[in-house]
Every structure is written in structure tokens, then in C-alpha cells.
Amino acid sequence: MKTPGAPRSEPDRLLAMTPLAAVVRLAAPTTVVMAVSAVSNIVYTYFVSRLGVDAIGAVSLVFPVSLLAITAMGGGIGSGAASAVARALGAGRRNDAAALAAQALVLSVAIGLGFGLALQVCAAPLFRLMGASGPVLASATLFARVLFGGAAITFLGGMFDSVMRGEGNVRVPAVWSTTSLVLQMACTPLFMFGFGWGLVGAALAMLACQLVATVPRAFWVLGGRGLVRPAFRLPRFTLTSA
Question: For the chain, which residues make up each domain, given as ranges?
């Protein structure tokens, strides 16, 4: 039972609002992230275009695959995890919410590693099937192998966000997503031209910025700063007589 002066959690604050105010509070951070993401994509494309037509063609081939993977992970598994955590919390089952969060995080890493491994093997045949050849095929294959080599980082960061959203917290994920995008706009030219890494630098800049934003997310979620602290437990197997 809460005392009158006790600080309220984010779900409590949302429940105390009018429906319109709650929708605005939930939607505003996401809207900001989407706007910054659009600007970041334009900046990213501009710098890649400085490498020539082949580089632009390569990135144009890889990005739909990347978008499909992120959409499947975030829109599918991530949304499911957020919903499951939210329903468990709403029913007062915090232990179940903690277990669900842990399972979602482990699943995101496993899928990220599997997806990254698959692209290491299948990138060239996939882009050849999409019509690429010559320098564009070589550049797309290299870019995809580097970018998806860190897919586990990308997926894990997204799943941390999903766990926080399941708690009703949309501001913290938005802050770190925006931070990652702003850093990416600054680091992309540095990695590409300052270090002389070209298209590989473009992929590494994206991964580095995602990693920088994933670390504080991990401290927030795993450190129990929110309503859910993931509970990682090994499954127990018992033998019973028939």
C-alpha cells in the first residue's frame, strides 16, 4: 500500500491522467525518435554517397534486409515481450514479469547471433538473387557481414527497450535511441573518412553507437532501476517414476 507522499511509478502516473494526456505522454518520445531517425538516415546516406554509386547501391540493398530484421525483432518479438511483461505486472505477478524479461533478452541475443551467422554465409547469394553483381555485390556483401556481425547488440538493445516499454516507461528508451542516432551522425564521417575505413567504417559507426546506447540500457534494466529486474535462472529438470 502506497503512502500519500511516496513517489509514484510511471504506470501509476499514466493511470492518473486523462486518456488524451496519457496517449500524448506515450507517443511524444517515440515521435521525437522517429524524426531524429529520419534526419539520421539522410545524413548517413549523404556520407555514403561520397564513396560513389557502388557504395550507395550496396547500402540500398542491405538496408531493406536490415529493416526487415529489426521490424521482425522489434515489431514482433519485442512487442510480444512488452505485452507479456505489461500483463504480468498488471496482474501483480512480478516474478513472472522478471522471468519473461529474462527469457526475452536471452532470445534476442540468440536470434541476433543466428541472424548474424546466417548473413555471414548467405549474404552474397541473397544479394545476387536480388540482382546485384560486380562491385555492388562485393560492397553489399562486405557491408552486410560487418553490420550483421553485431546483430546481437542491435537486437539486445531493442529488447531492453521493449522491457522498459512493458513497464510503461517510454522516455528512457527514447533518450538512448536519440543519443545513439545523434552519435551516429557525428561518428559516421569520422569512421569513414577520418580513419579511412570507407564503407566498413559506415557499418562500424552504426554498431559502435548502438553499443554505446545499449550499455546504459543494460545497467537500467539489469540493475533493477525500473519495475522489472530480469531473473535469469537455469531450468530445473526433475525425474519422476512412471
Answer: 18-222
